[in-house]
UniProtKB/TrEMBL annotation, chain A:
Entry-linked Gene3D superfamilies: P-loop containing nucleotide triphosphate hydrolases (3.40.50.300)
Compartments, record wording: Cell membrane
SMART domains xrefs: AAA
SUPFAM superfamilies: P-loop containing nucleoside triphosphate hydrolases
Protein name (database record): Amino acid ABC transporter ATP-binding protein (PAAT family)
Domain of life: Bacteria
Sequence ranges assigned to domain ABC transporter in this UniProt record: 27-272
Membrane topology term: Peripheral membrane protein
Family note: Belongs to the ABC transporter superfamily.
Chief place of localization: membrane
GO cellular component: plasma membrane
Alphabetically ordered keywords of this record: Amino-acid transport, ATP-binding, Cell membrane, Membrane, Nucleotide-binding, Transport
Automatic annotation (TrEMBL), chain B:
GO molecular function terms attached to this record: transmembrane transporter activity
Membrane protein topology class: Multi-pass membrane protein
Organism taxonomic ancestry: Bacteria, Bacillati, Actinomycetota, Actinomycetes, Pseudonocardiales
GO (cellular component) term, any one: ATP-binding cassette (ABC) transporter complex
Alphabetical list of Gene3D superfamilies matching this protein: MetI-like
Name this protein carries in UniProt: Polar amino acid transport system permease protein
CDD domains named in the record: TM_PBP2
UniProtKB/TrEMBL annotation, chain C:
Name of this protein: Polar amino acid transport system permease protein
Protein's membrane topology: Multi-pass membrane protein
Species assigned in the record: Tamaricihabitans halophyticus
Family: Belongs to the binding-protein-dependent transport system permease family.
Domain of life (superkingdom): Bacteria
Residue span, ABC transmembrane type-1 domain: 19-207
Length: 279, 232, 219
């Protein structure tokens, strides 16, 4: 398991992940259920994540991990239960002491501090790299153009793409596209960053360059992160907590060292054995 | 051919161009309004878009032009024939183009919509900054078919006495009786106009493809020579 | 102005005769388009450039120029060469040839959809070209073209009013005759238009049923 492949590994492994001491309920799922047809994806699920915490969601496919992220991004709505971020309900508003379905503008306001990096990158193909990163800061956050461009250049340099500002996404490798997507996400100054299998569509070599960038970012920011990944070594390096999902429930919730070294639940043990880990 | 006849042909061709471009402008506006209405979240707008598209795809240009010019005056609206012809063309082509607008918008992958939402764009910004620029590229090739159809349809409005190419051609023929030369020549002139429109649309298509970082398709003439691999 | 139902009633038999003529033109024009379109599609895949390229040019040219002018050409030019067609026959030929350029594209898509392995199998069996087409390729390509072809039946019908220009007795020609006598164009033109519209909607409704039953082919 001790990776010799990547230059970053040693440094990150050496630096212990900070013990987490933030607000314990920055993100809160309360009794959330979701089903697709007859298939129960989330089963009365409650958990919370502290501010600045980095939490990795693991488990077999279909166990509800990605659904969690997509709900936080408001790409999916829960069937029942509530989700709150920084004390505000995501899909509900309080009106006259009653919880009612939130208006589009309420959702948009709460969502403004959340963003996501996708498995398929999803860069805007009609915009060059720089504009992919500046578009939202300028048109959503209302930043002046030159300020946004300056910040974007910093972020693109941070992900190692300072030279590719004028390229179109289609001219980049998958790994480069994903690094642009990371810069694009950071450019909106998120409090919550959702990473949905961000290396699953990449060859191992390209995946490694993306994970290196993310390791760097994890070290230098206190953005709250929720990650769904199959890169277990990476998960161990960056996260404060690992949640093991099975059939829409969390069956184990522990720090990475414990989770990976001595999983308690039988289902976790068999899952971890089945994951071939290279990164 | 006399100078007068040449003048008639030139005037007619210019009139045909004017009708085509005017009809295209009207059609384009209607197409975007109706196309956006058809993908809107409002039921009422969707219904309006649907009725417009269904009705005017069913109504042939000639039917509309006839009705505008011969029937509408009895209701108290006197349409100038040229304007009536242009509106008939625009209404008709707009209904077809609206379906292209709708299809192109729906062909933009859903993950683009999701990425735009993750950037917290408003729904109008998602449409205007992310979806439409990509959809536009997909619209241009079918639009170029539309504009050829429009050019062809513009000949139809000659039946309500608009002095465009086909009408003036008939004038010349009734003067000199040389049917083969006149009508053959008309077809060649329409063919040339169609070629010009095709080339312009091709250039637009290439530009649009480049604007989304895509390699443009091979040139228009390959269409003429097209023959997918022949069995050995 | 007021709408005169008695007047409308008196003209309906003539207008319906006109509609019948329009339907005849549609049916025979479409049959011609089906046959000729297949011929175009096959010739455009000929191995001989001397066949393929000129046919391609002619097809593109016909598709790119107005049906109306083509109708004039047929109706006024052919007599100079000793071919005298009735207005309706000219109309049928004009519609058929014009729409053959569209149906040939549908057939082309259908032919392209036949897997390469089928051509290769025909070669492996040493089938002559004619046999390959008639017993292997077309039986697979034509059925899958049918739903898309039905769209052109409706499109063709919508172009039938243009036959007014060569005096075919379709509804608008009939209507013109009626209001030339009565000086009341409103009812006549409106009813001719309504007949066309209603028929077009009925046809496209039927087309949709056919499509739902047999599926769509992407062209």
């Amino acid at each position: 398991m001790e990776g010799t492949k990547e230059p970053m590994t040693e440094a990150t492994s050496a630096a212990p992940v900070r013990a987490h001491d933030g607000n314990g309920e920055f993100i809160k799922f309360a009794e959330v259920s979701k089903r697709f047809g007859s298939n129960v994806v989330l089963d009365d699920l409650s958990f919370s994540v502290g501010a600045g915490e980095r939490v990795t969601l693991i488990g077999p496919s279909g166990s509800g991990k990605t659904t969690i992220l997509r709900m936080l991004m408001t790409l999916l709505r829960p069937d029942s239960g509530t989700i709150s971020v920084n004390g505000e309900y995501l899909f509900h508003e309080e009106r006259g002491g009653q919880l009612v379905t939130a208006s589009e503008s309420h959702i948009r306001r709460v969502r403004s501090k959340i963003t996501m990096v996708f498995q398929q990158f999803n860069l805007f193909p009609n915009m060059r790299v720089l504009r992919n990163v500046t578009e939202a800061p300028v048109h959503v956050l209302g930043k002046p153009k030159d300020e946004a461009a300056e910040r974007a250049k910093e972020l693109l340099a941070l992900v190692g793409l300072g030279e590719k500002l004028d390229a179109y996404p289609s001219q980049l490798s998958g790994g480069q596209q994903q690094r642009v997507a990371i810069a694009r996400a950071l450019a909106v100054d998120p409090d919550v960053l959702l990473l949905d299998e961000v290396t699953s569509a990449l060859d191992p070599e390209l995946a490694a360059e993306v994970l290196d960038v993310l390791r760097d970012i994890a070290k230098t920011t206190d953005v709250t992160m929720l990650l769904v990944t199959h890169a277990m070594k990476f998960a161990r390096d960056v996260s404060h907590r690992v949640l093991m999902f099975n059939q829409g429930k969390i069956i184990e919730d522990r720090p990475p060292e414990e989770m990976f070294n001595e999983p308690r639940h039988e289902r976790t043990q068999s899952f971890l054995r089945s994951v071939i880990d290279e990164t | 051919m006399s100078g007068e006849q040449v003048g008639l042909l030139v005037d007619g061709a210019l009139f045909t161009l004017w009708l085509t471009l005017g009809g295209a402008a009207i059609g384009l506006v209607l197409a975007f309004l109706a196309g956006l209405a058809r993908v809107s979240s409002s039921k009422v707008l969707r219904a309006i878009g649907f009725v417009y598209v269904e009705f005017f795809r069913g109504a042939a240009v000639l039917v509309l032009a006839f009705w505008f010019v011969y029937a509408m005056p009895m209701l108290g609206w006197q349409f100038e024939p040229v304007f009536a012809g242009m509106v008939a063309l625009g209404l008709n082509i707009g209904a077809y183009a609206a379906e292209i607008v709708r299809g192109a918008i729906q062909s933009v992958p859903v993950n683009q919509y999701e990425a735009a939402l993750a950037m917290n764009f408003s729904s109008w910004q998602r449409m205007r900054r992310v979806v439409l620029p990509q959809a536009l590229v997909a619209m241009i090739p079918p639009f170029s078919n539309n504009i050829i159809e429009l050019l062809k349809a513009s000949a139809v409005v000659s039946v309500v006495s608009i002095p465009e190419l086909a009408f003036n051609g008939q004038l010349i023929w009734s003067g000199n009786g040389q049917a083969a030369a006149v009508f053959g020549g008309l077809l060649v002139m329409y063919g040339a106009l169609a070629l010009i429109f095709t080339i312009i649309m091709r250039l637009l298509e290439r530009r649009a493809a480049r604007s989304v970082g895509r390699q443009p398709d091979p040139g228009w003439w390959t269409r003429l020579r097209r023959r997918s691999e022949v069995p050995a | 102005m007021n709408w005169d139902w008695d007047y409308v009633g008196s003209m309906m038999p003539d207008l319906l005769d006109g509609l019948w003529t329009a339907l005849l033109a549609t049916i025979f024009g479409f049959l011609l388009a089906l046959v000729l379109g297949l011929v175009f599609a096959i010739l455009r895949r000929s191995k001989t450039a001397w066949i393929r390229v000129p046919i391609g040019f002619i097809v593109e040219f016909i598709r790119g120029t107005p049906l109306l002018v083509q109708l004039f050409f047929l109706f006024f030019v052919l007599p100079d060469f000793g071919v005298q067609l009735s207005p309706l026959a000219s109309g049928i030929v004009g519609l058929g040839v014009h729409y053959a350029t569209y149906t040939s594209e549908v057939y082309r898509a259908g032919i392209d959809g036949v897997p390469a392995g089928q051509w290769e199998a025909a070669t492996a069996l040493n089938l002559p070209a004619r046999r390959t087409w008639t017993s292997v390729v077309l039986p697979q390509a034509v059925p899958r073209s049918l739903p898309a072809l039905s769209n052109y039946l409706i499109a063709l019908f919508k172009d039938v009013p243009q036959l007014v220009a060569i005096t075919v007795a379709e509804p608008f020609t009939v209507a013109r005759g009626i209001f030339a006598d009565s000086f009341r164009p409103f009812e006549a033109i409106t009813m001719a238009g309504v007949l066309y519209l209603v028929t077009a909607f009925v046809l496209s409704y039927l087309g949709r049923i056919v499509e739902r039953r047999y599926g769509t082919v992407r062209v």
